[in-house]
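Hey, resending since the last one bounced:
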Amino acid sequence: MPEFKVVACYPDGKAETISLSGQNATSLLGLKINDEFDGSILGKPEYVFTITGGSDSAGFPMVKHIQGGSLIRVMGKDKQGLPKRVLRRGSLITESVVQVNVVAKKRD
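The structure tokens again:
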């Protein structure tokens, strides 16, 4: 069973960490960055949440432009601005993702 720590940012500027496991965590599997889901999964039915990113257990961030949930080396930059290969995870939420970042908006 997957387990996630969901970091939710609310419209008033406050943030909250919510631990998910079991059936609620399974419902997030297969979603991508920019997908929306119902707040009842997190116990907040008055909100709709949009996925903005996340990271895996090793700390590699999810990026929107990589399809799937695999770990890929892409060209990035080091501290001096020189090209360097860096590891990034794809935009799909899989069981290897540990943290999911979301933004809340009020339900209409």
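Residues 33 and 51 are 5 Å apart (CA to CA).

Sorry for the duplicate.
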